[in-house]
Amino acid sequence: MTENYPLMVPGVKSNAQSVEVVSPFNRRKIGTAARADMQTVMHALDNAQGLYKNKEKWIPAWKRIDILERVVKIMEKKFDYLARESAREGGKPLVDSHHEVSRAIDGVKLCIETLRTQAGTEIPMGISRSSTNRMAFTSHEPIGVVVAVSAFNHPLNLIVHQVGPAIAAGCPVIVKPSEDTPLSCLRFVKILRSAGLPDEWCQPVVTAGRDVSTALVTDKRVDFFSFIGSAPVGWYLRSKLSSGTRCALEHGGVAPVIVTKDADLSMAIPLLTKGGFYHAGQVCVSVQRIFVHYSIADKLAKGLSKEAKSMKVGDPTKASTDIGPLIRPREVDRVDEWVKDAVNGGAKVLTGGYRLSKTCYAPTVLFNPPSKAKVSSQEIFGPVICIYPYRSIDQAIKRSNSLEFAFQAAVFTGNIDTATYCYKQLDASAVMINDHTAFRVDWMPFAGLKQSGQGIGGIHHTMQEMQIEKMMVINSKSL
To answer: Which of 131, 144, 243, 429 has its CA 20 to 30 A from that of 74?
Structure first.
């Protein structure tokens, strides 16, 4: 079955050729999506700016809530369909795709809850002679036109995290999904429109080339730019933004985990296995570097290797599959090159270390790769976990903090003092104690530091960034 999506920008036609979408597992065609040329994205920006400039066309909060509540009901009815198609398109195993759809639905609910509970603040007045007879308070307004550029690895939930807050905040939004996984985005926009959102308020575009996407992002009509993807692309686009455009960037990390000698390995090993091999390691906070006390390094390594060997790799649409494909065959090639480079530098392969097919790579555990190897210094974005023995906790912390990436980190220990010490010393926006680095719920702050990003993700945090807090000051003799 294939799904073919026409252009979804009202009032314009595109001369660009449609993109063919294939399953990352078997490379079979699963659909097509119309591409947007330069004329199309300029028209989309006109549509969006026209809505924002005309405040009479703003959608009131109660109506936004009604629309989003209908979105939830539609998504719940289509739950199995959305999960199956997301697995086909993105390669995430079906069991995890079900979880992604649950999160996406919950994300829409969080948008509704935030709309119902957010409030302005009172600014103290009358506390100085100059502020007598005055009252001041704030309320929220949409920041303006939002342009969202998204990644492939969570093709539905990432779109919800970018588009949902924009709609809830009252911002017209133009969303550019990954060309590898546009169908999940287009389905969500179709659901929004079925729920009553006017077409111009959310316009999806699969752009025809980098020049078109760059022109979209850097246009002066863009008030807020939301980006999820690689650091080089994100920082480049940030450098080209028009004056006044605000932005949020979510890149990746090379997530560190410290395992102390008193850690509960029966707890740690299954969690680290899940955190490292979930979605074939294609997660921005995936477990990649594990620093383990030398006295238990062999035991941890053997346990992780045993878990990895037991995982079934294959068709993501089958319920029995634990690990699916990488998004493109060239990513399999890259991961294999990085592993071979680490082995040539002295790393020991405990399990895996080879491709299973053109699209799948065996879950791999490496012992003590060189610190300068790519698997130790760059985000692998593949099913590879590296183990490094250490002798002192400060040595482990120093190595954890040695890179220009800082996102989420983790510590496994049975000692509260060790846990709090690591929490204070690690360069990270979040430190998980006795949990893996990929833990996330959608109401918590989610932020990359250093080269890992800018701004704060999480539904209500994103909504805050897509709004302005506007103040009114009243001067009255009666106050």
So the answer is: 144
